[in-house]
Amino acid sequence: MNNLQHNKKSELEKSALKDCLEAIRRVSEAHKKLMHIQWSIPPQPEHFDHHIDLYYQWLETGNPLWLERGVYSSLTLQGGNVLELSCGDGFFCKNFYSIRSKHITACDFDPKAIETARLKNSAHNISFVLADIRNNMPAGQFENIIWDGAIEHFTLAEICNILEDIKNRLTGNGILSVHTIVERPEGKSLSHHEYEFKSKEDLYEVVKPFFRNVTVFETIYPSRHNLYLWASDSVLPFSDNCKFVLSNNQFEQESITLDSDINTFVEKIAAHKNTDKNKIVNMLIRKNKTLLEQLSQIHA
Predict the structure, then answer these.
(1) Residue 252 CB: number of other CB atoms within 10 A?
(2) Cβ contacts of residue 241 below 8 Å, gap of 6+?
(3) In Å, how far are 237, 247, 283 from 244, measured between CA atoms?
(4) What burial letters (b/e) apply to 116-147, b meaning 16+ CB within 10 Å?
(5) For each of the chain's 300 residues, which pLDDT tens digit applies?
(6) For residue 37, how many C-alpha atoms fall within 13 Å in the half-sphere facing its CB?
(7) How far, in Å, CA of 277 to CA of 267, rounded?
(8) CA nearest to 71, candidates 239, 226, 200, 221
(9) Distance CA 289, CA 78 (A)
(10) Sign of CA dihedral 182, 187, 192, 198
(11) Which string of DSSP letters, residue by residue, matches the chain?
(12) Which residues of 264-296 are buried (b: 16+ CB within 10 A; e: fewer)?
């Protein structure tokens, strides 16, 4: 590229960048206005339009907490059929789950939420359905059921009944993923919330009776204390048998006996590395196939 071409590209790039910055400013202002209308003028909506997060609040605060639920639920996806409960505006359904799922049935009891979801977050493999999961949860068998940012909208008795229906709709290896928040010291975050969990232990104790395996973890921000849960009768993400995880926890260190020559050799390496002899042997077994025959006589 000669200097003339380089200068021309530079000018075009500066002009395009200026246009982009102006577009970002205008879109951000529009979503700030939308947020004010929806949340400052009663009544407050039952769902949140996450394009407000994307185009306004994230730029304003730099806070990524709103994205976590999409990331953590995505870790459970198995490429099959998904049921999303209380889907709200459908943002996470489209932008986190649809690309890695065969089909998603996403439901909400709020007609306005379903209207917004169909308008802003449609995809070829998503069906947005108007349904109250307390008495009309969509039927079928699903590899994943996602209940993000909504469990707190139900009473404890309703939560338990819904969990029973969830269990009946999960396949044998199906996984439930949940996102919710911890109740603040001053009380509930929103008037719509029926039951906010007091701690990760509280959430665990409610869900554990329904599933063999339950994992609960938390993230804490100045403005919010998040809880995330995975539950299944099968394998959960990051457990020892999880197929997409490899960790040294899966390579158990054995108590072993070696023949004299190999034992001396391994002991020298262990001394040089300042580590346990058994760790060296397990490392050799994994890393050096040429030694497998010599080490085949190892026994506990």
Answers:
(1) 9
(2) 235
(3) 8, 10, 21
(4) bbeeebebeebebbebebeeebbeeebbbbbb
(5) 678 787 889 999 999 999 999 999 999 999 999 999 999 999 988 899 999 999 999 999 999 999 999 999 999 999 999 999 999 999 999 999 999 999 999 999 999 999 999 999 999 999 999 999 999 999 999 999 999 999 999 999 999 999 999 999 999 999 999 999 999 988 887 778 999 999 999 999 999 999 999 999 999 999 899 999 999 999 999 987 787 777 665 544 444 455 666 777 777 777 777 777 677 776 666 655 555 555 555 544
(6) 8
(7) 6
(8) 226
(9) 33
(10) positive
(11) --HHHHHHHHHHHHHHHHHHHHHHHHHHHHHHHHHHHHHHSSSPPSS--HHHIIIIIHHHH---GGGHHHHHHHTT--SSEEEESS-TT-HHIIIIIGGG-SEEEEEES-HHHHHHHHHHS--TTEEEEE--TTT-PPPS-EEEEEEES-GGGS-HHHHHHHHHHHHHHEEEEEEEEEEEEBPBTTB-SSTT-S--BSSHHHHHHHHGGG-SEEEEEEEE-SS-EEEEEEEESS--TTSTT-TT---GGGSPPPP-B--HHHHHHHHHHHHHHTS-HHHHHHHHHHH-GGGTTGGGG-B-
(12) eebeeebeeeeeebbbbbbbbbeeeeeeeeebe
Kindly report whether the peptide bond that precedes residue 43 is cis, defined as omega within 30 degrees of 0: yes
Find the largest Cα–Cα distance for the chain: 82
Measured distance CA(101)–CA(85) in Å, rounded: 16
* Sheet containing 213-220: order of strands: 126-130, 103-108, 81-84, 142-148, 170-181, 225-232, 213-220
To the nearest 10°, the Cα dihedral for 127, 131, 132, 134?
A: -70
